């Protein structure tokens, strides 16, 4: 196995929408589902599908509750999620540094 | 549509093995198939599949010939491939700059 930077990427984290979800959730304590949907320009079904992959991998937590009488879902990144994202960002940085300019 | 950096990524280019193929081919005039296979730690079938996606998108060219009596396939990046890779690298740089450290 060679050390090309793309060999260090995980498909779970690298997929562009999942990478978007992880970077956004890493910036706050928790993020509301509708905000993620709008920011990433995804349908609810598509966003749910990617969130499920990340929850199953232990990288996100889901919390369901109410904002007044409206049902809401909040998403938060786990410690394993932060670690996986940090690895991805390090690999991307290596790629950008190697290829850039 | 928001301006989150992952919204600017193309699935054709962003997929990690295809990103590896494009970055490696961008560094040389042409690359031999077996070298790509080894560098990216892929099976021949898997590499072929990703190369086909990139050829169909107009981002790579294939050239078949002989090295002595051994049949060889060389892969080269097209001008459109260089442009698509430059866009991807710019989007990744925005993501790394936004998220890093």
Automatic annotation (TrEMBL), chains A, B:
Pfam family, one: HTH_34
Domain called Winged helix DNA-binding: residue spans: 18-96
Name of the molecule in the record: MarR family transcriptional regulator
């Amino acid at each position: 196995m060679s050390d090309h930077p793309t060999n260090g990427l995980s498909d779970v984290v690298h997929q562009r929408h999942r990478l978007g979800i992880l970077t956004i959730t890493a910036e706050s304590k928790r993020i509301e589902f509708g905000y993620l949907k709008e920011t990433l320009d995804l349908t609810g079904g598509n966003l749910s599908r990617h969130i499920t992959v990340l929850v199953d991998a232990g990288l996100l937590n889901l919390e369901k509750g109410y904002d007044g009488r409206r049902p809401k879902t909040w998403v938060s990144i786990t410690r394993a999620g932060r670690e996986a994202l940090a690895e991805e960002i390090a690999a991307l940085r290596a790629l950008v540094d190697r290829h850039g300019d």
